[in-house]
Amino acid sequence: MDELKFVALDGEDLAIVSAHLQDAVLKVSDVIYRPQEKRLVLALNRFDWESAQADRPEYRRRRAALRFERVLSCKCRNVQQRGKDAVLNLLAVEFTPTDTPSGAVTLTFSGDSALRVEVECLEAELADLGPVWTTACCPMHLDAEPSTPPAATLSR
């Protein structure tokens, strides 16, 4: 499979990015906020949903980066900045417009943790960084069978 690279400039674009990042894991230390540069970067290990849904399913993770530009602020809920080795499990990334084109991006993690990123306008990029490795299982959620992002969002 080719490496992913997406640019998100609106809520629909970000929904596709969110589908590819469902069940990605990262450490708190992998969240880098640069207020002077108006940038937020997250280094993640994303679950490769496309390979898991292939004719011969293969469970893999890929190293990826999610970058937001034009960031005005970044606030966290239930994320301890001193707990750098704490692992966060990303569930969804959503954009809520406020005063167009500005808005808020919410990154929701398991355990009632979240990041709220206020942006001048939505300008995000998801890019695979190269390393790929197999994993023994497919992520599952208590209220469902193995997690499956909507098929329509997995097209390129």
Quick one: biggest sheet? 5 strands, antiparallel
Mean pLDDT: 88
Order of helices and strands: EHEEEHEEEEEE
The shape, in one word, is globular
- Would you count the extended β strands for me? 10
Number of separate domains: 1
Q: Write down the Rg.
A: 15 Å
Tally of separate helices: 2
* Poorly predicted segments: 150-156
Alpha-carbon distance between the termini? 12 Å
Structural class: mainly beta
Share in β-strands: over 45%
What percent of residues adopt helix (DSSP H or I)? under 10%
Q: Please give the order of strands in the largest beta sheet.
A: 1-10-5-4-3
What's a concise summary of this model?
The chain is mainly beta and 156 residues long. It has helices at 11-21, 49-52; strands at 5-8, 25-27, 31-34, 39-47, 60-69, 71-77, 87-97, 103-109, 113-119, 124-134.
